[in-house]
Design goal:
heterodimer, A: mainly beta, B: mainly beta, seven-stranded mixed sheet, globular
Chain lengths: 113, 113
């Protein structure tokens, strides 16, 4: 089955700097790659997603890139702010079949003022 | 948008008792529901997949006789933790494919004393 690896597990940046979180997946059939932000005790919140027919997607300060050949995808946050501090999860699924969503291990991002 | 209502949000039970967690899709039909467990500072681990009208599919290492899943209708899936023990204390959350992504319930914090 699908396996998603996420790095780093913790990331500390200064306010205004960029943050990059990387994930790899194992199942070449996966075609949907969402990123979630989760606050303690809350449900994951979708911040951006990308499908396998696209190599890059951007939404204001957040961007995601996908390399299907290498089975890598990354989250890029620019101009980080203290409120970006949270735990971020990548995930992968075969979404057009309503497939199960497999999560990476998570990255705890800390943005220092 | 799609909403999955999960109840209860938190529950405390005595060791050896059973606890039922419900997830209802409020404005769409959820033919599939994914159930996750999340321990503190860890990722969301898929436990099982329920499909309306058929038996649930359990991930490797998850005891199907301990975690009973029922998906009797297109809007309701339930997870029953039977003979709960302190090690079952965790955050349980459901998720259903919806639209172009997934909709999560709000989660249930289970504490077994």
């Amino acid at each position: 089955g699908e396996n998603v690896e996420q790095h780093p597990s913790t990331l500390s940046v200064q306010e205004g700097d960029s943050a990059v979180i990387k994930c790899t997946y194992s199942d070449s059939a996966s075609n949907y790659f969402p990123w979630y932000k989760q606050e303690l005790g809350k449900r994951p919140q979708l911040i951006i997603d990308i499908r396998s027919n696209v190599g890059e997607k951007k939404d204001q300060r957040i961007a995601v890139t996908l390399n299907k050949t290498a089975k890598h995808f990354s989250l890029h946050i620019t101009e980080t702010q203290p409120e970006d501090s949270a735990v971020y999860f990548c995930a992968a699924s075969i979404n057009n079949q309503g497939g199960k969503l497999i999560f990476g291990q998570g990255t705890e991002l800390s943005v220092k003022p | 948008g799609a909403v999955v209502s999960q109840h209860p949000s938190w529950v405390i039970c005595k060791s050896g008792t059973s606890v039922k967690i419900e997830c209802r899709s409020l404005d769409f039909q959820a033919t599939t529901m994914f159930w996750y467990r999340q321990f503190p500072k860890q990722s969301l681990m898929l436990m099982a997949t329920s499909n309306e009208g058929s038996k649930a599919t359990y991930e490797q290492g998850v005891e199907k006789d301990k975690f009973l899943i029922n998906h009797a209708s297109l809007t309701l899936s339930t997870l029953t933790v039977t003979s709960a023990h302190p090690e079952d204390s965790s955050f349980y959350i459901c998720s259903a494919p919806s639209g172009n992504g997934y909709t999560f319930g709000s989660g249930t914090r289970l504490t077994v004393v």
